[in-house]
Amino acid sequence: MNLSSLNKEQRAAVECLDGPLLVLAGAGSGKTRVVTYRIANLIEHGVNAWNILALTFTNKAAKEMKERTAQLVGEKNAEDMWVTTFHAACARILRMHIEELRDGHTRRFIIYDDSDQMSVLDTILKRHGVDEKTLPKRAIKEGISRAKNAGIPLDRYFSEGLYANALECDIAQEYQKELLAANALDFDDLLCLTVRLFEECPHVLERYRMRFRFILVDEYQDTNPPQFRIVKMLCDSHQNICVVGDDDQSIYGWRGADVSNILRFESDFKNVRVIRLEQNYRSTANILNAANAVIANNTNRKSKVLWTTDADGERIKHVVVDNERGESSYICRQILRGINAGKKYSDYAMLYRTNAQSRVLESTLISYGIPYKVFGGHRFYDRKEVKDIMCYLRLIANAGDDVSFKRIVNLPTRGIGNTTIASLTKRADEAGMSLYETALTDEMLDKRVRDKLYPFLSLMEGFKKMRYETSLKELAQSIIVTINYREHLEKTSNADAQSKWENIMELLGSIEEAENGLSKDDDPLSAFLENVALMSDIDAMNEEDKGYVSLMTLHNAKGLEFDTVFIPGLEDDIFPTSRAKNEFSTLEEERRLMYVGITRARKKLYLINAQSRSLYGNTSFMRESRFISEIPNQLMDIEAGSYGIDVSSTARSTDGSYSIGAAGFSSYTDSSVTSYGSNTYRGLGYIKGRGSQTSSGYQSTIGKTAKPPKPVEKNLTVGQRVRHEKFGDGSVTAVSGSGNAMLVTIMFDSGVSKKLAAAYAPLTSID
């Protein structure tokens, strides 16, 4: 095999065939290339493709890995090995063996996605007469997930310790019973039941140990406890495990990922070889140096430094704007300038900390006429019209799916109301059967209820028969035509009926595509439903489509890259979040998220913070994110926006924070942007105070009482001695701008350097 295209470290990883191997792969260092070449090298050295298991976390990554591997080893070898996600691998194992657990699940189980789980909890809460405002179902769902990932029985988790709550305990246990009755698993069950299967059925574990003699795990830093246990059990006898990952990109702690899995790999396995991939093939040197500088502030990490042979590239733009409207307008203007210069919309991405930030960004994009797409919100398959047809397909596949039954039994309208459903539900509970099975077979069901349900049941039985006589696409088409779904859309959706119908056509296209990719042994309907349940909208991202700007949270940007990246909302209490002030581990994960955001950019990076932002109904002056101050001076240019602050409505506190009413800001215009050219600034105290610092971080200063800023009466000069109310005495080392736009850098006698806006800093001359 020709390995000449690999660098020294990549080649070392590819040529290391036996024993435990940890590849610490920095962002953009070519880790997918290493994984695929290592698989090919194993096969070249006599390893049977059948004995290789490669695991990752997204369908998109698995598909890319499989395609690249096929190019190296041929389609036949690629088909023989398992190159898949953790959840898909577990689903495949459970399809074969779940009945050996003897807990009531069958091989025809369905997978409940997030919305299905919420529907189940909604039903249970209503049964208990609980108002969701009192006990949010989202919180219960997250608690159930935490318990499963920690391997703690639900009754114990919700009855002991921090999360003890008798009602939640009852609801959680009822949730699990509802899933069992529907022969359904949630995402966590796929992992946890596989762990249980391996522990309780040693012969099953041994079967997969014998098959998977070589295991590769991509993005190992994202593994949670069940995933770690699955991998550990599979490779315990042969130790042929290679994990590739980057602890600096571990950003999913909130959903159970445990960064310590990668940090303690060398103690979990014996005689581990460690190889670091630090050469980056994506970003400019300035961007990489910024990322290195930020992540170096974390202590719980394995040391690595990204580098590149490419040029320094443009300096990072640190942009300070008035407010969120100025922020979004600035971004849109930069995009339009790029488009006018020949760039593509797909060259640009906006990456933000929370979904709530997208509202203003989206409205401004619309006003500027810029096409965009939001990723990480509702999946395509979660759209109402798509979900309607999917629920028909799901009920055909599984008569125990009460969630789907309730959604479609009166869709389109068939005169089946709440009273009928209540009577059916009562009888189903008494009989211990699903709603569909009760309606179809229970002779004790009230005749009036049965008569109302008969047309729907007759329809569904016809579809179930058709399932084995036609293609999956033809089945879906038959459903759509038979229930007159287009007419239903036109009656109920009015203005957007056409766009919803186009989504239905897209669904048919996706079904056809999925059918074409199935093996002859797959049941088309079951395989399609499983693939959909495990898919995210990032998986469906079309990299060939150049027609839109991408918007997504920083979490959803993992694994992606763009020529130009904007990171708005870089203010303390937004990014990092307010929780980071009191939780060291949270602050470190927030910093890793910043590192991920920075390293998504190939050529240009814009870091944007606003002086004020509307939060929770109030407009408050914001403090620049500490992450900006962790980037060295020489890597950044600062662009100062039009402050436009109505001084009569502003006030300033002694620690430098501000609070104002909803008014008081002028619009942000092109002419107000000042670029400081070749000068570089750090912006440590720029147009805001930074709050007081404690051992756990900066205290929040948002919303504090304040006093008006003083006007600058004369220009400060380099060398001038000044006194700051908080930082003490110091010397002016740099000055730019004039009047209220004057920026002054001061080296304080304490050894701390700060850049301040002279108009707002509490400075007095001591010359």
Précis, in short:
This protein has 767 residues and is an alpha/beta fold.
Q: What general form does the structure show? A: globular
Helix-strand category: alpha/beta
Distance, first to last CA? 73 Å
Q: What is CATH's topology name of the largest domain?
A: Rossmann fold
Give the proportion of residues in helices. 40-55%
CATH class of the largest domain: Alpha Beta
Give the low-pLDDT segments.
Answer: 642-713
Q: What would CATH call the homologous superfamily of the largest domain?
A: P-loop containing nucleotide triphosphate hydrolases
What average pLDDT do the residues reach? Answer: 85
Number of helices: 28
Would you count the extended β strands for me? Answer: 25
How many discrete structural domains? 5
Radius of gyration: 29 Å
Quaternary state of the chains: single chain
Strand content: 5-15%
The CATH architecture of the largest domain can be named as 3-Layer(aba) Sandwich
Strand order of the largest sheet: 11-12-10-13-14-9-17-18
Q: Sheet with the most strands?
A: 8 strands, mixed
Helix-strand blueprint:
Layout: H1 8-15, E1 21-25, H2 31-44, E2 52-56, H3 59-73, H4 75-80, E3 82-85, H5 86-97, E4 110-111, H6 114-128, H7 137-150, H8 154-157, H9 166-181, E5 184-185, H10 187-200, H11 202-211, E6 214-218, H12 225-235, E7 241-245, H13 260-263, H14 265-268, E8 273-277, H15 285-295, E9 316-321, H16 324-340, E10 348-352, H17 358-368, E11 372-374, H18 384-397, H19 402-408, H20 418-431, H21 435-441, H22 447-466, H23 472-482, H24 485-493, H25 497-516, H26 524-533, E12 549-553, E13 562-567, H27 584-598, E14 601-610, E15 612-615, E16 618-621, H28 626-629, E17 636-640, E18 674-675, E19 693-694, E20 697-698, E21 721-724, E22 728-736, E23 743-748, E24 753-757, E25 763-765
Parallel strand pairs: 1-7, 1-8, 2-3, 2-6, 4-5, 6-7, 9-14, 9-17, 10-12, 10-13, 11-12, 13-14
Antiparallel strand pairs: 15-16, 17-18, 19-20, 21-22, 21-25, 22-23, 23-24
